[in-house]
Structure of Chromosome (Plasmid) partitioning protein ParB:
Amino acid sequence: MAENKPVKKRNALGRGLGALLKDTPQTTKLETEAKVNPVAGIFEIPLDEIQVNPYQPRVHFDKTALEELSESIKVQGIIQPITVRRLGDREYQLISGERRFQASKLAGLDKVPAYVRTANDQQMLEMALIENIQRENLNALEIAHSYQRLLSECDLKQEQLGDRVGKNRTTVNNYLRLLKLPPDIQAGIRDQRISMGHARALINVEDIDKQLAIYQRIIEEELSVRKVEALVKELSNPKEAKDPSTKTALDPAKKYEINKIQQKLASHFGTKVALKADEKDKGEIKIPFHSADDLNRILEILEII
């Protein structure tokens, strides 16, 4: 019996060390992985152990630009490491650097250099959004959505947000106001059919139909920001308008409706139709034809023959 006591004591001590080691698995594992290829706090992490960032603010990645980055990585390697957070045993999640991550996959790499940071969900969201705003070429709408998420999901005030991203409150507010525009115009900003300057001018038009009508004119007539600003001013204060080149015979909302009717007529007749109207609702419809057969086709549609 006396000989068994030291054995029990050693077993108890062994269990205590095991429990202590189990309480700190992340530290132990990270120290082990640091031996793989540590460079000033940077670790080489297998790509298949990294999850994409669910908080990534960039929605669209240019395929050509991604392929160009991939070719550069094949030659030069990754110059700027990605940033990840640790989720568990051999499991990480991107904080920033998704373009580099995706391009590395295209380049056929097995591992990428990465900074490993500790962050909860809110901290990760804030870091990902701010890093992308500062370092990636986001379009104006993506920046606006990123600002909105920082305000709502990270519980920041506009002054705090301005400090985080290095912008004054007015600039931040101008981006946030883009989210009040109709979906069609927001899509135009996203697809870079109109600039931030155009969008800021459109924000000052309260009527949605007029906003859409002016937006259509910007696309069709390739209006400059200055002309759009003058057009908006004319709508708000017709007597104060100074630029005659921006004046229109029709109310923008009415012109928008006429354009819609013109498109329907063109679809119905299978040819380009010209529809014109003035402020008194007088006008004309022109239906061109290109041959006798084409004319007969149109007359049949009109049930004249």
